[in-house]
Amino acid sequence: MTDQHVAADAVNAPQGAAEGDVLPVPRPAPPHATEILLEVGEPKILQFTQKQKIPAIAELVWNALDANATSVVVELRRSVTDAITEIVVTDNGHGITPERARESFRQYGASWKSSKTHTEGNRRILHGRLGEGRLYVFALGTEFVWESVALVEGKPVATRITADVRRATKWHVEEPTATSAAPGTTVHIHVPDDKRLRPLEASDAAANLTAKLAFYLKAYPEATVEFDGVRLDPDEIIEDSRDLMLDLPEEYAQDAPPPFITFVEWKERMSDRKMLVCNSDGIALAEYGDDWSDAVVNFTPYLRSNRFNDLAVAELHMLTMTHSALLDAATKAIRDHLRERSRAIETQVVRQLKDEGIYPYKTENPSATEIIERRTFDVVVTVARNALPQRGAARKLSVNLIRTALERGPGDLQKILESVLSLNDEDRGNLARLLDRTELSDVIGAAATVANRLDFIGGLRKIFASDLLRKELREVDQLHPMIAQNLWLFGEEWTLARPEVGLTAVLRTHLDLLGEDAVLENQLNTVRREDGRAGRVDIVLFRGIGDERSNERLVVELKRPSVIIGRKELDQVKSYARAIVDNPQYRGTKCKWRFYLVTYEFDHAILRDIRQQGKPDGLADDQPEYEVWVKSWGEIFDTAERKLSFFQRQLNYEATDERVTQHLVASYEHYIPESLHPSVPNSP
């Protein structure tokens, strides 16, 4: 008894029957089935489970078209929850004879097409000749049935073939039976509950399939293909088609007609855009190279030559060896034309925005940075052109959002493109790669960083220069959070540093050396006044960076603006530094410590300590293991601004009072004094 018989008997066993029970009335056996072992290892077959879904459907359609079908219908059957449970592909081709079934399903790569170039009766060009098309069902489901009717000696004969992914090398071909049905084949693919076929469920699934079959359907209009209720019509998705002449190598110069590229632009993005190697009629025979993925143009290139009219299977596999010069010429022509089309589309998009009066750049003499920003904007808005609202205030708003995002940085741009314009993942990925290649994103990002830093420094200067604002500023929940987010003030290397939990115990052990008002930053939640608000204390902020070779530690004591640093405070931080580096946990390690004592003002009594000959200003204690620095906020701001001055000149950027206030409100709304909030009319 075959596996198929055993399975069928088990399914028809009465409820409650135990395994091994003898059934009193066995049901009639199905027609005898021949078990065929596919002569290739199971791993080779199971690799098809990873194939893409749309190409897998296309292979089943090609099989039908190669059988001279004039009608191919792909039906997606769904459950009540709209999940695909079965795929049924029906065609009216010449069908599969019993003999052909036993031959084709036995040997991997074996196909009646392998020695032919045209379908039976020479009616059409053959697409598939590799004998792999039937194996693409493994990408779509787990159980498969072919029900086919073919003429044998002029009479219709039905053949049924079954397969199962759990026994991938075993195929069952049932004995043929006489029938009155017309020739044709129906393929049933069972889709299990846990298998998702998102590409087939996508709104552009029919269009993606059409792109793969486009020139075949245009060449043979008598053949129709329907996918999930939609008839595939290439003319509905082709935006433009033009032929590109090639700079041909000498050995192809005399071909008549000469090889050329048909460059097809689609109205929407297609998932598969490899160059297709075609015969002179544009019927695709093979794919070549990687996907042509472009952020602006949606296209597929077709390399057409009569040299490919009668290629055998082996020759298709050797294209890179036998026709490498032609393939290189085709690649160059595609790249050159793609560059021209991208520029043309970008020019058209920008001209349209200017005609509508919503192009956001109007400066007659733009700065160098604005020129770069304009170039970036032109690229981004061109990529996003189809996602922009078509008219009205929403369109203008979207354009201005793109410009605003560019001014703030690439991160904001990605948020706008994703959440506001709903640009799909692929377009955003293509855009990101394009910006990376042109380095425009880096320039805009750097410009935004410099401008934000200048605004931040200007904002803090404004706060410290005002007696009212300085009095309102609270260290615990205002000054500390802002400084903690801008550690570049103490050196660029600290920009990405993070709090180091392992330091907490050691820093806390010796904290009393700094005085009773000093608190570690990770313990600020315990500091409260009687009214429940954060108390006024000296905050110890700490960070660490390093690797297996060396480490650095930054410890910053943020003094209250009301405290004037004198001899007492300096001696405290020196004692604290020495106690830390002498702790057994860090003694003898390759670690450099930098201690900063920062305040609004310091006493003249310590000037000799922090203005030593041959030492940088502010360095009060310079030891092999550590340094102690005393810095006023003014000195820190001056140093940071000097580092930014070159970029500031290039940006032609001025941190005006209005700009710095807007920056503080936008970026640090919860940390700034109440008088700076827009709701307060008389802010200084």
Structure description:
The chain is of the alpha+beta class and 684 residues long. It has 4 domains: 33-219, Histidine kinase-like ATPase, C-terminal domain (Heat Shock Protein 90, 2-Layer Sandwich); 237-341, no CATH class; 368-437, no CATH class; 450-522 and 534-668, Restriction Endonuclease, CATH 3.40.91. The chain has 22 helices and 23 strands. Strands 1, 2, 3, 4, 5, 6, 7, 8, 9 and 10 form a 10-stranded mixed beta sheet that branches. Strands 16-17-18-20-23-22 form a 6-stranded mixed beta sheet, sandwiched between helices. Strands 11-12-15-13-14 form a 5-stranded mixed beta sheet, with helices on both faces. Helix 3 packs parallel to helix 6 (205-219). The protein is elongated, with a radius of gyration of 37 Å. The chain starts with a helix and ends in a 17-residue tail after the last helix.
